[in-house]
Design goal:
Length: 222
């Protein structure tokens, strides 16, 4: 990733019963992470005593890319289907990239039928990782295909610019805090793009390569 690009955070969504598979996937994704310079967040980064739901929602808000490890347990999770996945899909509406990784045969198409999932064979056919021989080939194929999508996404879409906060204005009595934000013209002059609306305006559509969400019932059910 070019030095001028801000750090990209990837949110990894999975079911806790699939932790072993998560670790196998991360092993194959780590070289990509090192070369591209992005960070990976999963719920094991929550600190002791931290409110898990708010911690997850905060990570979703701060993430640019979402990788979902889709299994039957993932799809059966009440928390994932009811809270985490809707938040991820909402992030997609603001320009985030959502990538589903199909680990096993499941009803993944109920949610992600319109998205290109990984890993796929050289013929372009989706093949769940459980069907690859050796299985490591499936994890490797998924990591390679995801790396291409991430590179394309980062090079195509700049990270959103945060909305400006309160500023100080001079008054006869000193300084006063104001919530006034710069005009649309001023915002456009700074970056060459229109940031006057909430979010940011894409000049080109992002190629969608998948979608998934995952958070199983941990201290919350399963």
């Amino acid at each position: 990733m070019p030095a001028s690009q801000p750090m990209v955070q990837i949110f990894l969504s999975y079911a806790h019963a699939d932790t072993e598979r998560l670790d196998a996937f991360l092993t194959h994704l780590d070289p990509v992470r090192r070369s591209e310079g992005f960070t990976i967040w999963d719920d094991r980064r929550l600190r002791a005593g931290e409110m898990w739901d708010e911690g997850i929602r905060k990570a979703v808000r701060e993430s640019d890319i979402f990788i979902c490890l889709v299994t039957n347990r993932f799809l059966a999770s009440t928390y994932i289907r009811g809270s985490e996945l809707p938040a991820i899909l909402q992030a997609e509406n603001r320009g985030a990239l959502v990538l589903p990784v199909i680990l096993e045969h499941s009803h993944w198409d109920q949610i992600f039928a319109e998205r290109q999932c990984v890993p796929s064979t050289k013929r372009g056919e989706l093949r769940p990782i459980v069907n690859w021989r050796p299985r490591n080939d499936g994890y490797h194929a998924a990591s390679v295909q995801i790396a291409r999508s991430i590179t394309d996404y980062v090079e195509t879409e700049p990270a959103p610019i945060p909305s400006p906060g309160p500023s100080l204005i001079a008054t006869p009595d000193g300084f006063e805090i104001t919530d006034d934000t710069p005009s649309a013209a001023a915002l456009q002059d700074r970056s060459g793009r229109d940031h006057s609306r909430s979010g940011w305006k894409r000049k080109r559509p992002v190629r969608k390569l998948g979608t998934c969400g995952a958070r199983d019932e941990w201290a919350r059910g399963s």
